[in-house]
Write a structure and sequence with these properties.
Strand order of the largest sheet: 2-1-3
Bound molecules: zinc ion
Order of helices and strands: EEEEHE
CATH topology: Rubrerythrin, domain 2
Shape: globular
Number of helices: 1
Largest sheet: 3 strands, antiparallel
Radius of gyration: 10 Å
Structural class: mainly beta
CATH architecture: Single Sheet
Number of strands: 5
CATH class: Mainly Beta
Number of domains: 1
Strand content: 25-35%
Length: about 60
């Protein structure tokens, strides 16, 4: 997962410096990640307010 940035707002992991979901700035300081395939069925996704499938950082600093 090296080289990926995390969105400050929705925690999406991406190679870009702007989040493709919400256009927020992304940062390279994050820890841990979760892969969400079906947000509607995922407790983690609900907790983190994730509505789209993807890879998300657990902590973004
Ligand atoms: Zn985002």
């Amino acid at each position: 997962m090296k080289g990926l940035n995390a969105c400050k707002s929705c925690h999406l992991l991406t190679e870009k410096d702007r989040c493709p979901h919400c256009s927020e700035q992304t940062v390279n300081r994050w820890r841990g990640y979760v892969i969400v395939r079906d947000p509607a069925q995922s407790q983690v996704a609900k907790k983190m307010n994730i509505t789209k499938p993807g890879k998300y950082a657990l902590k973004v600093s």
